[in-house]
């Protein structure tokens, strides 16, 4: 009977022990799950890599209440393990650690934690080289961070607060946690590489754009040199076009594009007979025919080029088209003409009328504007004329920072403010019409 | 109320050369770091014992545990006693499981914590 009671008591004690063990294991498991959940959130933080790594490392320390340790990122190029976060180490232990390529390879192939106490494997040569330093820092466990068979970092850990040795289950949990951290570092590196490549591409692209713009300027100069009466015309048309497009609310890229179109609009003149271009008189019918080839020729020259802006060849082709369909080379009407070409048309006409030609002197500003008014809706697009007038008036009234248009007109035009009432009147007249055109 | 980081302050008070610091409802990175800073400040100001009162604390996450390990280190380096009081049973089990209780005493309440500190002071001849 006594034996039976003792047996029952023993069984009861065992049951209590098993229950306590199960409760501890359950709590251990829940704590690990919570750590993993927090770790997942940290890894997703791509905004601040070092902060992510520090927090992940502290989560790992906290999951086992480990008093000291460090996490470092391995840089293959310098062969250094750069410590990013640590706890419980003194400052001299916080620097970096050299890792040879051979050791890095060995650590990467290890696939498990390295313990200072029972390192027996061949791969533990790394430990041997650093045993003294690790022992001094009370580090006794190393967890290589390996992604795609490459060493990308190491977690160094001291003992647990319980002072117990790490069990196989502990090492398995640590392996899972460090795998997350490894992936976090790897993702960060990929992101950095992508950003670096994108930056390099941006620089290359900017370089190409610069070359393109310089080439365009060279072409514009070449075009203008051919015509001794219109020197600087292409560049001015580009700049007037830019002013009008900006006033019309075009974005920076489109504004740059329209300036380029202005520079190149007369490139077709390169194939026109030099004697015709430089004729001191108004063109006769034959010369006019020869001259009218230049928009289509410009299109042919510009089409094979991959321009970084849209519709440059079309703007060259259509800059002599008219809203009423009486232009050339294709006799397009109204909305058939691209908006950019309508802008270049006005800019081209404005520069032609405000510069001396062999057969006439430049016109007075009021006469130029009256010409615009008379030909709006037939030759010129109302919305473009309106935008031009608004931009001009803003410069006269000083409501914009720079007087770009007035500067382009130069000293030959004094008292530009005298056309303010005319500009205001034109804007008032055109606003409804331009808006209606915009609504279309 | 010594937090100078511009964040919400950590509640703390002094009883003799013992500092009592009150943990918030969730001991995570943010609140943990505030407590760590306050503990270090109190130690620098000459506190010989620290009592962290967990009366409002429902949950301590892993970063919170890691930070508490840092507080334990700081207290040991300054040869100061560290006592956790008013710890709920869940958190007490966690501290027990992780071995924190090997380095820090748990007290039922502040009174018990202060009583734990007092005999040591006497024993040390103060």
Mean pLDDT of chain A: 87
The percent range for helix content of chain B is: 40-55%
CATH architectural type of the largest domain in chain A: Orthogonal Bundle
Strand content of chain B: 15-25%
The total beta strand count of chain A reads 6
Structure summarized in a few sentences:
The complex is a heterodimer of chains A (440) and B (126). Chain A is α+β, with helices and mostly antiparallel strands and 440 residues long.
Task: Provide the descriptors you would attach to this structure in a database record.
A: 440 residues; alpha+beta; Beta-Lactamase; Hypothetical protein af1432; 2 domains; 59% helix; 8% strand; elongated; disordered C terminus; B: 126 residues; alpha/beta; five-stranded mixed beta sheet; 4 helices
Report on this structure.
The complex is a heterodimer of chains A (about 450) and B (about 130). Chain A is α+β, with helices and mostly antiparallel strands and about 450 residues long. Chain A has two domains: about 25-195, 2-Layer Sandwich (Beta-Lactamase), CATH 3.30.450; about 225-440, Hypothetical protein af1432, CATH 1.10.3210.10. Helices cover about 60% and strands about 10% of the residues of chain A. Chain A has 16 helices and six strands. Chain A has a six-stranded antiparallel sheet. In chain A, a hairpin with an 8-residue loop joins strand 2 and strand 3. The longest helix of chain A has about 60 residues, at about 170-225. The N and C termini of chain A lie far apart (about 105 Å). The relative contact order of chain A is 0.06. Chain B has a single domain, classed as STAS domain (Transcription Regulator spoIIAA), CATH 3.30.750. Chain B has four helices and seven strands. The interface of A and B includes residues 28, 62, 63, 88 and 164 of A.
């Amino acid at each position: 009977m006594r034996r039976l009671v003792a047996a029952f008591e023993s069984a009861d004690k065992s049951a209590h022990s098993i229950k306590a063990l199960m409760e501890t294991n359950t709590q251990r498991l829940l704590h690990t799950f919570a750590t993993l959940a927090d770790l997942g959130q940290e890894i997703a933080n791509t905004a601040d890599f070092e902060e992510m790594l520090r927090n992940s490392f502290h989560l790992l320390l906290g999951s086992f209440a480990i008093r000291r340790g460090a996490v470092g990122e391995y840089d293959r190029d310098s062969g250094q393990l750069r410590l990013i976060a640590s706890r419980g180490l003194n400052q001299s232990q916080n620097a970096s650690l050299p890792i040879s390529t051979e050791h890095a390879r060995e650590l990467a192939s290890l696939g498990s934690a390295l313990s200072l106490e029972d390192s027996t494997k061949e791969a533990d040569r790394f430990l041997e080289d650093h045993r003294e330093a690790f022992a001094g820092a009370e580090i006794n466990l190393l967890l290589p961070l390996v992604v795609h068979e490459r060493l990308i970092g190491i977690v160094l850990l001291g003992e647990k607060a319980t002072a117990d040795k790490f069990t196989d289950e502990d090492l398995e949990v640590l392996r899972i946690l460090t795998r997350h951290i490894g992936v976090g570092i790897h993702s960060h590196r990929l992101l950095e590489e992508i950003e670096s490549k994108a930056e390099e591409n941006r620089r290359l692209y900017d370089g190409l754009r610069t070359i393109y713009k310089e080439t365009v300027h060279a072409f514009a100069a070449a075009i203008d040199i051919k015509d001794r009466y219109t020197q600087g015309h292409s560049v001015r048309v580009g700049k007037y076009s830019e002013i009008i497009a900006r006033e019309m609310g075009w974005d920076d890229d489109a504004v740059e594009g329209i300036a380029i179109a202005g520079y190149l609009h007369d490139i077709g003149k390169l194939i026109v007979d030099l004697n015709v271009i430089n004729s001191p008189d108004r063109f006769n019918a034959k010369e006019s025919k020869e001259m009218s080839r230049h928009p289509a020729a410009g299109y042919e020259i510009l089409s094979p080029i991959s321009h970084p802006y849209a519709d440059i060849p079309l703007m060259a082709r259509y800059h002599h088209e008219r809203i009423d369909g009486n232009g050339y080379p294709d006799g397009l009407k109204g909305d058939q003409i691209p908006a950019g070409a309508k802008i270049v048309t006005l800019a081209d006409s404005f520069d032609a009328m405000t510069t001396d030609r062999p057969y006439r002197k430049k016109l007075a500003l009021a006469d130029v504007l009256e010409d615009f008014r008379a030909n709006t809706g037939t030759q010129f697009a109302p919305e473009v004329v309106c935008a031009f007038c608004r931009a001009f008036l803003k410069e006269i009234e000083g409501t914009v920072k720079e007087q770009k248009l007035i500067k382009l007109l130069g000293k030959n035009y004094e008292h530009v403010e005298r056309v303010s009432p005319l500009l205001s009147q034109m804007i008032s007249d055109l606003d409804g019409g331009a808006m209606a055109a915009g609504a279309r | 109320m010594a937090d100078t980081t511009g964040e919400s302050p950590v509640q703390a008070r002094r009883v003799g050369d013992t500092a009592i610091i009150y943990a918030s409802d969730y001991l995570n990175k943010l609140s943990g770091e505030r407590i760590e800073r306050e503990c270090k400040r109190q130690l620098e100001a000459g506190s010989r014992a620290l009592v962290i009162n967990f009366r409002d604390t429902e949950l301590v996450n892993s970063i919170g545990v890691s930070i508490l390990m840092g507080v334990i280190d700081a207290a040991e380096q300054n040869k100061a006693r560290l006592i956790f009081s008013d710890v709920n049973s869940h958190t007490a089990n966690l501290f027990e499981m992780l071995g924190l209780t090997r380095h820090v005493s748990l007290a039922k309440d502040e009174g018990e914590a202060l009583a734990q500190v007092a005999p040591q002071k006497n024993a040390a001849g103060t």
